[in-house]
Amino acid sequence: MTELPLGREDDPDDHDYQVREVYAQYGLASYLGQVMEKGVVNLLTLHANVESPNPTQQSFDVFFEKFAGYTLGRLIVDLEKAFPAEVETIAALRRALPIRNSLAHDFFWDRATHFMSFSGREEMLTEIVSMHEPFKSADVFVTALVRRVAEAGGITPEQFEANLADAYDELNQQVPGD
Question: Per the confidence metrics, is the pTM higher than 0.70?
């Protein structure tokens, strides 16, 4: 677990830092949840395309758009249907689902009074940081399964890495220069 520096309640700089840290850690947790969720979308998309009699970039795009519109709960149900033997992956996703839903829908609402005090924000920080691990853990399982599905579909590990490197390069080319 990441240790966060504790501040002093009576120091305005520590107050401002703590408030920013709550938002920053919340943002990181939200990001990790989204990475995990898009990993499931990618997995189901890849699986559907590999199972397709005529896989194409267009069919990949159609499947991706379809799965991207699903809730995380529905994605997990579909993953469980497609990969019933992936017990650890499914369990990790099921552990992460209520955490992700709480984070996305209720976190600040349910802790409005906590956010108003120094000790309450410290509790929030501890809770938010504890959310990181379930998302990371589930993503590790999903990523490993994506690689196995790709290989079963005829994409060698070397091709997979090359495709990933190409995608990173394409993304980097879109980054505006500062």
Answer: yes
